[in-house]
Amino acid sequence: MKKEKDLLEKYGLKGDPRLGLIAATLGFFVGFAAVSLYGPTAKEFRDVMGLSGAMMGLLVAIPQLTGSLLRIPFGAWVDKVGGKKPLLTLLILSVIGMAGLTAILYMYYPDNLTLDMYPVILLFGALSGCGVATFSVGIPQTSYWFPQKKQGWALGTYAGLGNTAPGFFTLLIPLALAAFGLPGAYATWFLFLLAGTVVYAIIAHDAYFFQLIKKGKKREEAIEIANDLGQELFPSGTLVDALKISARIGRTWALVALYFTSFGGFLALTAWFPTYWRLFHGFDLRMAGILGGAGFSLLASFIRVYGGHVSDRIGGEKTAIISFTLVLIGSLILTVSTGFAPAFIGELFIGAGMGIANAAVFKLVAKYVPEAVGGASGWVGGLGAFGGFVVPPVLGLFVDRFGEIGYARGFVVYIALALMSILISIVLKKKYGHELH
Fold this sequence. Notes:
mainly alpha
């Protein structure tokens, strides 16, 4: 301990693994909440702006556009400069988006918030969604702080706690809306995001290797000193190569398709379910938030941990088949159901299935693409999450085509995605289940 303390003082290094985990989790939590940016309040925007179903679907999905596509480049940036600068950049962009949205609402809502303002609302939603991409930055930022034997615990804590943000915010927005109105609710959210960004900027520090590089140390010397302080993982500088190698492997794209359904589907429904419960079943904003937040988002987040244990015991392929079957059952129920009880049961099936599947897919990444795990994780995490942007506008089209019953019929999209994912999982199990180790 004395040797470590002397080294920290000698080289002017700051932070420690515990603080590194706290900072990364905080940054991910405050940024990831933007998944639910418009979902719980979509009805308010629809009513005053006269949005169609497809436009409403695009509105609730827009944060996922930047939140998914920015994951790959910002995750790669960590290996060059450490995690603090990339994550802080994403949070600042999100703060700018929330500030713009809040200002628009105070100036124009409700009487002057017309359809002409729709592109601006989308723009600020896309900026706010930059915070969603913090996941891919926080993962390596956390990893560099911890030794190999503590990686599982550290990353599980980071992902598990941070991933609950959309669920909690879906529960809290209705309370803020009732207390402060729509502009006040978003102003409260903006202040929370701003405060979280400031706290992150103060407490976050890059792992020792990156601090030493910034102080002018050569790579070899920086590795030696950081190693003495307990750091075991160091950037190899080969992520671009890993992206190229993994892109040439067909199994990578099979996993992207699976994650498109499980995690992209999770993001889409986190945004869509509050709207579904309000406009199809007629619940008030608070109850719709409870059903969409606790009933779906938090369930899927917490059960993901259990999904990892199941995958370890019976294998990722079998776990994926079972979990996507749960998604299929839930989708079938929601597609044909108009009553609350069966619809809620269907939501629970989908939430459980997606949460378990999210863990199963990443269990398979290391197995199927061992020569380029980092690159494959980038493609799977980034492009898979793109489902959160693609699916809600399609669900909205069903509302435009079929009217109110379209809120139910739209879940046929998830029937198709679940069937596709089950088929892919079966093929992977039969073709590669026993070949790859």
